[in-house]
Amino acid sequence: MAFKVIHVGCGGFGRSWCERFLPANVKDGLIEVVAAVDMNPEALKNAQQFLGLPPERCYTNAKQAMDANKADFCSIVVPPAFHEQVVDEALAHELHILSEKPIADTLEASVRIAAKVKKAGKKMGVTMSHRFDQDKTTLRDHLRSNRYGALDYIVCRFTCDCRKFGSWGKFRHEIKDTLLIEGAVHHLDIIADMAGAKCETLYAQAWNPKWGEYAGDSQALVTMRFANGTRATYEGAKTNTVGLNGWTQEYLRAECESGTLVLDRRELRRFQYDPSAVWRSHRENEGEVLQLRNQPKWANAWLVEKFAKWLGGGEPMETNVEDNLQSVALVFAAVESSRTGQPVKVQELLEKTRQSQGA
Description:
This protein is of the alpha/beta class. The protein has a nine-stranded mixed beta sheet with strand order 14-13-12-11-7-10-9-8-15. The protein folds into two domains: 3-130 and 299-320, 3-Layer(aba) Sandwich (Rossmann fold); 134-290, 2-Layer Sandwich (Dihydrodipicolinate Reductase, domain 2). It starts with a strand and ends with a helix. Helix 5 (107-120) packs across helix 10 (346-356) and helix 7 (178-195) packs across helix 9 (321-340). The chain has helices at residues 14-27, 44-51, 62-68, 83-92, 107-120, 134-144, 178-195, 299-311, 321-340, 346-356; strands spanning 3-8, 31-37, 58-59, 73-76, 96-100, 124-127, 151-159, 199-207, 219-226, 231-237, 251-256, 259-264, 267-272, 288-290, 344-345. It has ten helices and 15 strands. Helix 2 links the parallel strand 2 (31-37) and strand 3. The chain is globular, with a radius of gyration of 21 Å.
């Protein structure tokens, strides 16, 4: 059975949902898009062109679309500050929800949303696309295989040359904490997933160098400790001289008991520990190249499929809203740490926020 969906947000990244992510699952018979919503009538042309929706099923108001069309869930691809508003409307119409990251623009709103969804007895997933890209999934498969022993620590690097105004999308140059909110939201999530445990303590420094044309912090260094003892470091930068590891080209190194795994610009290499060798030193490009996992869908297209299968009675998707609160908490813990200059106990921050919101 195809689940009926009302898609909210057709402009900007919403175009990719209309053009690629939703059609891949329509083709597989998992979903049927019954209506689309965008405040900008011009953006609705994407729904008409790529999803084949007639103009009468394209709306500029989410309530009108939900009033007029029976559906099983709605997909949300609007700015994070408007997520809670759309979630409220969806729950009022008894719809399940699949939303773009982050859950909301604040930790407080994210906690409220998760509580509302739970109270309504509905399912909500969040699309953390980078974690489910081909290269990161392959690395995760190797770490979960137990072939390399215990994981000791992780290093992640995301560095770009986007210092000029507008080079990273104009709105990102105009908001606070832009690197942490718009970049690290993916990378800290990936690190935590690889670590396989909740983050206990996080310390961050974020800043904007004088040559960065940003209103907020465009660079950050973050250290993390997880409940299973794994440590991690993160280097994020948008104003460097050159981009070494930009979007989808991130560097990740996992240091394990009996192996080192290096992912760099979508190439994964392995170094195996040799107990007979007294001392070894290698360049990273000398490791054994590992084949990346192959499958038809990746990133958001795969996550739409996971959500549909969850609605059909399958296992909850990994990025269900309750579990995804951990990722949102990492971002806002990093923001708080950078502002106070002190480490943040992530689980305490999340629990304190839950109590403040009555969740």
